[in-house]
Amino acid sequence: MAAAEPGAAPGGGGCAPAGGGSVPVLFCFSVFARPSSVPHGAGYELLIQKFLSLYGDEIDMHRKFVVQLFAEEWSQYIDLPKGFVVNERCKVRLVPLQVQITTLGNLTPSSTVFFCCDMQERFRPAIKYFGDIISVGQRLLQGARLLGIPVIVTEQYPKGLGSTVQEIDLTGAKLVLPKTKFSMVLPEVEAALAEIPGIRSIVLFGVETHVCIQQTALELVGRGLEVHIVADATSSRSMMDRMFALERLARTGIIVTTSEAILLQLVADKEHPKFKEIQNLIKASAPESGLLSKV
């Protein structure tokens, strides 16, 4: 979701600080109104996060929104005043603007990070076309190294499921993290992304499409990032689970694409200094696995 910056507006700025702890807030969206609370002194960003946690399934991530505060002095909602913090019980609402954001899907190396999700040894016998997605995933990581794109790798409960398969070369990866959460959006990952200036796009691949890939993609979009899922480098135990996950994600505005499209979009020009090397990677063409026929 892309939310509008709060603009200056008269009134509704709250009362004098009432100390620490949490403050009750009524969060309104569409026909819904849900009471919750936020820490005393919470501002715009925390309010947005709370709206996402309460209404994530109902919010169209590709709309612009404005947060409004109910002002007693006007007996109506006003745009959230600049610098507003929650000091007392209040009522806020999230209002969609009429303009819809078009997801163009442009990629540049300087604003892109690759996410490699749970390509682990114990998944080998269970995941459909696992050998093929390993091959494509390795090609993507080679491309990331050539283009200087940061790579973040996770491993789901490696104590039980093993490490990343040996065919995947993790040389130069920015992070390789164990996890138990299905989504890759761990605190360490969020901290690493915050350290990289200008990040706009995430290229995501691995397993399983309908679990870790899907949950990661939705969390990233909820944080305002554009997500590209590489269809020929992601799979599941069941092709039906994979197919419906990709369809669901595409409907939310997430871009479902292919490894060749990703790599060529990143170089963009035959005159790019790394074009020949990227072209050589692509010439080792993706296996005819049937993965793309089941997107």
Automatic annotation (TrEMBL):
What SUPFAM superfamilies does this protein's entry cite? Isochorismatase-like hydrolases
InterPro entries assigned: Isochorismatase-like_dom, Isochorismatase-like_sf, Isochorismatase_domain
Q: Which residue ranges does the record assign to the Isochorismatase-like domain?
A: 112-260
One Pfam family matching this protein:
Isochorismatase
Q: Please report which protein family the annotation says this sequence is part of.
A: Belongs to the isochorismatase family.
PANTHER family registered for this protein in UniProt: HYDROLASE (PTHR14119), ISOCHORISMATASE DOMAIN-CONTAINING PROTEIN 1 (PTHR14119:SF17)
Quote the protein name from its UniProt record: Isochorismatase domain-containing protein 1
Q: Which organism is it from?
A: Hippolais icterina (icterine warbler)
